[in-house]
Amino acid sequence: MAIRVVVWGENIHDRENEVVRNLYPNGMHGTIAEALNHEADIEASTATLEQPEHGLTADRLAQTDVLTWWGHKNHGGVDDAVVERVAQRVWEGMGLLVLHSGHFSKIFKKLMGTPCSLTWREAGEKERVWAINRSHPIARGLDPFFVVPQSEMYGEPFAVPEPMETVFISWYDGGEVFRSGLTYQRGAGRIFYFAPGHEVYPIYTDPNIQTVLRNAVRWAFNPAKPLTGITDAPNRPVAEALEPIAERGPSLHVPGEAGFK
Length: 261
Known about the structure:
Layout: E1 3-9, H1 13-16, H2 18-23, H3 27-36, E2 42-48, H4 58-62, E3 66-70, H5 80-92, E4 95-99, H6 106-112, E5 119-131, E6 145-155, E7 165-172, E8 177-186, E9 189-194, H7 207-220
Parallel strand pairs: 1-2, 1-3, 3-4, 4-9
Antiparallel strand pairs: 5-6, 5-7, 7-8, 8-9
C-alpha cells in the first residue's frame, strides 16, 4: 500500500507573484506532489490555505500518513482549530515535513514549544548543503554535499529544541551556516524540518531536493496503528496494582471526586 501524503501549501505567492507563478505554474505544492508521485510507493495529493478548513478536514487527516507544510506570508491565517487537529494527528503517528519558511508556522511552533526564529538574508546566494549524517535514511542516494545555485540565507541561531538528529548543515556565500535538516519526534509522529525552498528560485525542481523529500516521506511514515485519543484522554487512575503492594501514608485523591485528574 502506498504512503498517503498531503502536500500543504499556503498558495499565496504561487498565485500573486509573477516570478513564482512562472517557476511553479501548478504552485510549489503541485511541483512537490508531482515529484513525490514519481515513486510507486508514494501517493501524494495537495491542500491549500484558501480551501475550506484549509483542505485539512478531520476525515482527510485521518487518511494521511505524512503531511508536508510550506507557509510564509500568512501563518496567522491558519485556523487554530486546524493546527490543533494536525498536532493531534502527529502525536498519533502522522509524519510531518516542515519546509523552509514553515519554520515560523503555528504548527511547528506548537510542536517545538520554542520561538523557531532564525536570521535570514534574501540575496540569491549559493547554498552548499552538507549531508553530515551520511548513514541517515533521509540522506540516502546523495553525495557528501550538493549545491543550490540560488537560495535565501537562513542562519543561526535557530531557536528550536535540540533535535534527535542533524542530517544536513548548509553553508552560504556570505559565510553563515545553518542546521538545515533536523529530525524530531512528538508522540508517535516523526517530524523533519528542511530549510531549502525559497519561492522565487526553482529549488523544488532540483533533483537533490526531490530526493531528500522522497527519503523524508519514507522516514516519517509510521505504519503502526494510530495512537488515537492520546492528546485529549484524561489521566487514568490505576486502583489495582500488578504486584502486591502495601499502601503507605494518606491519599489526597478520592475516587470520583471532581477536580482531581
